[in-house]
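Moderator note: this is an archived Q&A kept for reference. The question asked for a predicted structure of one protein chain; the sequence and the answer are reproduced below.
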Amino acid sequence: MLRQTVRAVLMLALVSLFTAPAWMTAGQKKPDPAPGEETAREALVKFDKGWKPYTNEPNLGDPRWKLKMEVLVRLAQAGPAAFPLLEEAARKGSKWSASTREFAEETLKLLRKPELRKALADYDLAQMDSARVGKLAPDFALKDATGKTYRLSQFRDKIVVLTFIIFDT
């Protein structure tokens, strides 16, 4: 009789050890990441997998700029929800590649400026790489140094020369 009692107590103890984590966490399911966080993670993973370091070889037709632009737009669309992931990715020693760490650091600087984040988030990726020789250029808008906005369509039937000056802040 004592053996049966000890055996029953041991069985109950074992069962409670294996089922305790289940009933203790039954109502405490780990929350799903917010849509912005998930969008940001998917975009950064795409960059991390698709980015190839630059070389000194000619890169005509190089698709990296498209990858970078697409990921920038997706991160901007994720909004501030992307910031924690980008901060983690930018940290030295993070699991992300060196290229992704550098990209995350640069992207954080851009996306922390609401006007730049909005401009990137509103960008229509279908317009990317749509210009063709001999065809009308896709319409776009830019601000001058005083903040006045100009649309390319304002200058139809005129010769337009665009100069883009890219600088590092």
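Archived answer notes: The first strand starts at residue 141 and ends at 143.
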